[in-house]
Amino acid sequence: MIERSDSNYSPLSSAALHILLALAREDLHGYGIMQEIARQSEGIYKPGPGTLYDNLRKLIQDGWIQELGSRRGDNDPRRRYYRLTEAGRDILRAETARLTQVVREARSRLRMPSPRRT
Amino acid sequence: MLRHLYCCAVRLHPSSFRRRFGDEMLYVFDQQKGAPAALGLMLDCVVSLFRQWALRPHSGIELSVAPPPTSAADHIPLFETLDSFRPRASALINGAVLSLILFCMTVIAIRYSWVHVLNLHIREIGTDWDQQALAQVRPSRSVWLQFDPYVGEYISKSPPVKILIRIDDDHLSLVFAGHPSLALSPLSPKRFIIDGIASNYVDFTSDGLGRICCLSLLINDKGITAQR
Questions:
Q1: Would you tell me which of A6, A92, B150, B184 could form a disulfide with B192, CB atoms 3.0–4.6 Å apart?
Q2: Domain region containing A95
């Protein structure tokens, strides 16, 4: 788990958060990540390839995402797959906890009822 | 047509980014259907182009771990750089060509300049004036002038007197009847003060061809105008 005191940790950008979240379930290629992000945000947020790959490169450099290369038997050899690393998963957990705290605080201040668990 | 433009825009990205993600960007473009989506990707690519060149200036440099420093043998100091950055060959060539052009232009400007200069060191003026007045009239220490055009005899009709301007050592001198040689210090190409006294000066006047033809001398509150 990433500690808040870690100087390297800072709130993630919207694009980085969505990319990590998209890769949390399975390995995806770039276009697949874009589709998954659009699905997660219900079509509200659609990063373009320039934004996506700029963030992917940074996340790879940080060691939060691993590039797997192309898969055998794939339809198009240009597709390269990406995987969330353990460090990336820890970052995603830490960010989720932070956002949960933010949402809880916001609900408290706005006097909104907590969502019911189904 | 739009795909061709998109290819060009992808190729304009920094080489490291293009090598790594260029094919995938094209793949994403090929998956889009319809002109609006393609236009959106085109716009995104242009923004990305700006981002990669302007905001990611070191994106073309692959980070690498610096090799461990080798131990100094026989107490000889070793110097190493930590990064392996080297400018592109084309940038070096451009820089060399521009430097050469600039150097040649400077040499030509010096060689064919119409102002032939002489570095003249003006001696310090020591007077009893107050500092403000001194600051107004103090000549600069170095004045670039050519003295030859000023040298000659100047004749005044009223009063009838002959004034001689000549070069003594590194300065102009003024000689006229009853006075010893007086040193002239230039305030400007047209005005020289006499013996460091601001109220005494000589104004030179040029004719239409730029030749010095006349001087006006003001010394001890007396004015004399003389023709060459």
A1: B184
A2: 14-110
